[in-house]
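=== Given protein ===
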Amino acid sequence: MAKETVKPYDADSSKKSQVSSMFNKIAPYYDFLNRFLSLGIDTIWRKKAIAQLRDNPPNTVLDVATGTADVALALAKTFRPQRIVGLDISAQMLKIGRTKVHKQQLDEVIELIEGDSENLPFADNTFDAITVAFGVRNFENLEKGLSEMQRVLKSGGKLVVLEFSRPRIFPFKQLFQFYFKNILPVIGRITSKDPRAYSYLYESVQAFPEGKEFLDILSKTGYHAHRCIPLTFGICSIYVAKK
């Protein structure tokens, strides 16, 4: 379980509503900042996460916290599945995602819907695979969100989670901490006009139960055959698990 509840804004409202509000605000700048602040490495991370599904290409995929649909689009190009549903709590992020989907003429394959990861609007055993890229960190109730995804995943289906983690190796650990805590929030503040969004990013990464702790939570919520794959000196990790 997370060390503490970290919210984007210092307010009494729920984390869920604050996360939705934050992403609605920064949506127009999100794709640019992702590429710029990660030096484009985020696209490589997503490809490596999706590659975890190659051994059994899925026909139906749910992409939770789909945002502007980068993962959904990559899934469509890589596996040509029959159906991809991208779900997100931010209407503005989805609006941008739908434009990207339409531009690539994938409307018949990819459906983007507004929804809550902790109350998924799908029947049990619906999807062959579920992906989540940089989203589980924003769940208000992590275990509930993971349990919901386990519920709608078919037996034998695979969950792939891509999430930030904290490097352990000197001097990369120190450089990462300095960049995430001091440089990234300033760039984000100037560019996105939201003074809290990228400070929240740093704080939420610090509070997230990474590595073995997250694998233990996967076990607790009904998954098995799980493993953690660190990427780029541990800046982020891929978690793979089965139902």
Q: What stands out?
A: The longest helix spans residues 15-37. The first strand starts at residue 60 and ends at 64. The chain has one domain: 15-242.
